[in-house]
Design goal:
This protein is an all-beta fold and 117 residues long. Helix content is 0%, strand content 52%. Strands 2, 4, 5, 6, 9, 10 and 11 form a seven-stranded mixed β-sheet that branches. A four-stranded antiparallel β-sheet has the order 1-3-8-7, with no helix packed on it. The radius of gyration is 14 Å and the shape is globular. It starts with a strand and ends with a strand.
């Protein structure tokens, strides 16, 4: 299974940007999908997570500005990012966990988001 992200780019402070992640197969059971980000020299940070039957999770740093959603019946997840700040600049990775797993099983290749001041 491959996860393919799209939608990254360069924007200015206060702008919005949407990311999309699509799994190569919709027939496998994925219970959770999420987005994490990483800047050079720092650990990867989970910013949003959506799990079947549960409320979405957001990191404090993005809560109220980012919205994660998943297309019904599909292994496709979106991240709507509003009021972007320079501190949101990072490579954003999509992740997916199988229904039989408690860990992230798949990661995307990452997409760069750059927010200029």
């Amino acid at each position: 299974v491959q996860l393919v992200e799209s939608g990254g780019g360069m924007v200015q402070t206060g702008d919005s940007l949407s990311l999309t992640c699509a799994a190569s197969r919709d027939t496998i059971c994925i219970s959770a999908m999420g987005w994490a980000r990483q800047v050079p020299g720092k650990d990867r940070e989970l910013v949003a997570l959506i799990r079947t039957g549960a409320m979405p999770y957001y990191a404090d740093s993005v809560n109220g500005r980012f919205t994660i959603s998943r297309q019904n019946g599909k292994n496709t997840v979106y991240l709507e990012m509003n009021s972007l700040k320079p501190g949101d600049t990072a490579v954003y990775y999509c992740a997916a966990a199988l229904c039989t797993s408690s860990n992230w099983d798949y990661w995307g290749q990452g997409t760069q988001v750059t927010v200029s001041s």
